[in-house]
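INPUT
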Amino acid sequence: MKYTFRKLNELNDRVLLCPRCCETLYRTDIEHYTSCPYCALMLEMNDELEDFLLEPIVEGWAITEQRRMT
Ligand SMILES: [Zn+2]
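OUTPUT
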């Protein structure tokens, strides 16, 4: 399954565009059910999708790391 992401400039974050209905999916929309809330497409977990879901955690670590350095 090929995923398309769109950058949210104002939030420095990304959203996923549903491969079937092209609705904008926020991380919170898909992290619990891994399906599109609009068309119920089951989203196949792959590296791209996993990276997308883990991004805030990774960024959180980076911020914690920076604070420890200063
Ligand atoms: Zn959909």
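end of record. Residues 4-69 form one domain.
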